[in-house]
Write a structure and sequence with these properties.
The chain is mainly alpha-helical and about 180 residues long. The protein contains five helices and two strands. The longest helix has about 35 residues. The model has no long low-confidence stretch (mean pLDDT about 90).
Length: about 180
């Protein structure tokens, strides 16, 4: 029963992340979406292993050709400048889940710092991949500052708002899930 529940939750968070890709605000180079919100909640609720697995499933479905990413899907998506953010989702869900598993009492402030720590990895992989993609694959000579500005500075405000929202939701939700035996 527990394995079935875990598989359902992994699939649900993969689907939620896909839905989050289509709830977006178009801004230059990197659109603002709700993917990070569901990635963060996956790490917090499912833990490191299953949170990361939900994001791996999401990325695998997209790379297999199902158009679940912000600009479609398919194996050629690895050449998109924003693919690094998808890699970052996997790492972030794992990191967020690992921190949550190791913190005895998760307060609102601790949750915010946990989510920001995970968000760091999304931007680390995203900005570096954006820079490398433009310079090596697309042949457009951009500075690291350009990639940092459009890949981080322009986007971070929205993700910080989502961080506070995810922290608030999880502080209310995690005790209920623990009480009912859904998480440890």
């Amino acid at each position: 029963m527990k394995n079935t529940r875990n598989l359902i939750l992994v699939a649900m968070f993969a689907a939620l992340t896909a839905i989050g890709a289509f709830i977006k605000v178009p801004i230059p180079y990197v659109p603002f979406t709700l993917q990070y919100l569901f990635c963060a909640l996956a790490g917090l609720i499912l833990g490191s292993k299953f949170g990361a697995l939900s994001q791996i499933v999401y990325v695998a479905i997209g790379l297999s050709g199902v158009p679940v990413f912000t600009e479609g899907g398919g194996i050629s998506y690895i050449f998109k400048p924003t693919f690094g953010y998808l890699i970052g989702f996997i790492v972030a869900a794992y990191v967020i889940g690992k921190v949550r598993e190791n913190v005895l009492k998760l307060t609102f402030i601790k949750t915010i710092f946990t989510l920001i720590f995970g968000l760091f990895f999304i931007y680390l992989f995203g900005v570096v991949y954006l820079y490398i993609s433009y310079n090596l694959y697309l042949g457009k000579d951009i500075s690291f500052y350009f990639a940092f500005f459009y890949g981080f500075v322009v986007c971070i405000t929205g993700d910080l708002v989502l961080t506070v929202f995810a922290a608030y939701i999880s502080i209310k939700l995690l005790p209920v899930l623990r009480k009912n035996g859904y998480i440890k």
